[in-house]
Give the backbone structure.
Amino acid sequence: MNKNKLTLKDVALQLGVSTATISNAFNRPDQLSAARREAILAECEKIGYTGPNKAAQILRKGRSNIVALILADSIAYTVSDPVASTFIKGVSRVLQQQGKHLLLYAGDSESILDVVDFVDGFICYGAPRNPKLAEEVVRQTKPAITVDFNIDGLPSINIDNEKAAYEVASQAIANDDHVAILGLRLIDSPSTCRIYDSPLIEVESSISHRRLDGYIRAIEEKGLIIENDWIWHIPESDRSFAKQAAKEVLHSSPRPNTVLCMSDIIALELLQSALSLGIKVPEELKITGFDGIEEAERTRPNLTTVCQASDKKGEMAATALLESRDKDEILPFEIKRGETF
Amino acid sequence: MNKNKLTLKDVALQLGVSTATISNAFNRPDQLSAARREAILAECEKIGYTGPNKAAQILRKGRSNIVALILADSIAYTVSDPVASTFIKGVSRVLQQQGKHLLLYAGDSESILDVVDFVDGFICYGAPRNPKLAEEVVRQTKPAITVDFNIDGLPSINIDNEKAAYEVASQAIANDDHVAILGLRLIDSPSTCRIYDSPLIEVESSISHRRLDGYIRAIEEKGLIIENDWIWHIPESDRSFAKQAAKEVLHSSPRPNTVLCMSDIIALELLQSALSLGIKVPEELKITGFDGIEEAERTRPNLTTVCQASDKKGEMAATALLESRDKDEILPFEIKRGETF
DNA sequence: CTGTTAGCGCATTCAT
DNA sequence: ATGAATGCGCTAACAG
């Protein structure tokens, strides 16, 4: 038994036909008679040739069937985030169904240059932590699509974050409430803190700032105002950061009775902290979340939140990329009324 | 501006040097003077050549820097499983650090043939749902390693599941207990059920069966016996399946007062079901889990479980693959005593 | 329907 | 330290 892999040429030689015929047997059934094709494939099977070398095909065809999913953060962080992993779920479902492969690409990598040549396209899920990646995606020529943020001329998939935030806040807030906001990545700080007068970061296309806009619109519409020291910045949707923020809010005086949270993870930490302090939810504290993760339905009381169907978003992103759709999509959201107000 | 990508040849021509020199400038710094190299790289930067085409490199060098992680199940299922995603976390950390890329490969795919030619190696995390994949992994020649199961001559990474199960069970069980087991993938059934006399599946290398062995050894050592109708089969570590099983156990008579669960997800569902029925844990019901997921520490009461450091396992798997270590590893585990017994 | 040929873009001898 | 030539394994044109 020969350990050296058979090549198309070897096989052609052995079967006494030309390389093109073997190639066609595998790639273009219409180029030869079914009988001949069957015979050839059977022979190949017998001699242990499993088909044309994929590496060579990639070079030759310029297509690999690999799609890169560029994440906002490291892979490590992303796979343990329920929203992101639900998105990945949707993406992977479509890709697998279409015979495509999924390459996970960290948003804090140096560069996409080492995959751009062999990948078929890019799905960018959230603004990559390393902004250089976004620039590189624009500069290259493979199809690409962004989700939850925008890049120059690329099609994008989003929900209307401003409107969603506005709606959930509107429903939660009463005219005489004292409102606080637990925000996500609002300013450039590695730790949880009130934003005070710190400059907001990447304000243009940041979903957090759209949500902030929506919250503030709702607040002002009730005739209230919110000062910057009642707005917290949380560097990432991580439980321990969130817990810190929750603690600060609940121990600040006067204690807010309505807290708008920019993610369910944050809201759940706040909820748990509040309960363990004996604060009654929603009587003494109303809470809204954002995202609609599964865990938020399981808690008691369950969370009122903005449901965005992340898996659908993933499916849509993959589909849009594969069909090279070119227009932006705004996906619907749904306010899911729970028991936290 | 030329939209056609520059090739090594183009650049060589423009700079008036040979292609080999350009290639060496990028790949083999020792083959030319530092000064010359710098000059060439600078020129390349200026004319917009970002380096040798990776697709061509894959063919030429036979290396892509892509590692395939073959999962037991679909990607969709796997990313939302806390144990698996923790494992991925560990893998990805090492890969990123080594400049390797991660291709997620579903265990229910048809075949690995369409990636085997360009991938640098395989990490197989759990026995793939499609057993053909495991065979294909053996037959091919790229480095490969298995985790949580075994394949023929491949190195593997495991914990001693039998011993871990034995230890946690030993600690939990008292001499006059009535014990039940909530098992995972014990028989070939798509739904939750007691195993009765159904034939056990893939008994040899299945971690579930090793755990079962350990549980039973502990039980018998206490002078007890467990009948097959007190052992449940749960098709996958999924909350709704687990909830069903929990319900069955808690409503069976006589109700067991000790339940050994083969995953934390299962244990957590049981815990929650028990509490909502007003059953006191651990006074009326002792529960053990398996895995040591984060959520199991957060619950009240928190779970007594077998902690296996899945992220370390992932790191170890990636490292072992990249360094082509050839021997099996048995990783340590730790019984984490919580409040559920 | 089949065979011949010319690259895809590069890395690596082997000369110089 | 450098340049010319060879082929990694395949596919798409084209010719027959």
Summary: The radius of gyration of chain B is 26 Å. Residues 17-21, 24, 31-33, 36, 56, 59-62, 117 of chain B lie near DNA strand D (CB under 10 Å from a C1').
